[in-house]
Amino acid sequence: MNIALIGYGKMGKIIEQIALERGHSISFVVTSANKDFKSEELKNSDVAIEFTRPEFAVKNMHRCFEAKVPVVVGTTGWYDKFDAVKKCCTEHNGTLFHATNFSLGVNIFYEINKQLAALMSPQTDYKAKVEETHHTEKLDAPSGTAISIVEGIIANHQAYNSWKLAEENFELSTLNFQLPVIAHRLPNVPGTHTVTYESGIDKIEITHEAKNRKGFALGAVLAAEFVHNKKGIFTMKDLLKF
Length: 242
Prior knowledge:
Mean pLDDT: 93
CATH class of the largest domain: Alpha Beta
Number of strands: 11
CATH topology of the largest domain: Rossmann fold
Oligomer: single chain
């Protein structure tokens, strides 16, 4: 396939490496220098992979829909505009593959998290929290991955109906039915997510720790291969067949 890279930071460069290793070619690259590119510049691309910033992502997706080029989007922080993006995709008979995290391991973690939440729901002595740690360059907090995790808990646990970004020394008693999410930003870390259930007797934790960015990049390239010649809106559940 000919792949357009919309965003050529650390992730974009790793995606390029993996795409080339898997026999693909890079047809077009968008950097800060040409961020206002035109949709027709995508005409030689079979699929686009978008990793930029929230304020650019929606416009980039619209350009891909206009060009009839399937787009894989790894940018987070834009999901409040999802309904409008979905409408645009449908109107152009386009293709969108979106995920808050492309790591295969994280998406397995999502499913384990939902099952654990259902098991813990009747156990009223346990209080839950979610913690995430990312590099200082990540602008959104909590991460899109953390939001997906808390949404999985809320959907499967009777004690929680919303979530709240909390400080590290928060008091559970002040949150009522809100699930606390703690976001840490540290230099040079790929990403760690932990779900904790704790009572006065013991503690249960599940953790996903990324060792590097390669897992995210590989998942994005696999998603690009998956949506090639497809129409519609897809997620990692479609790719992994959960």
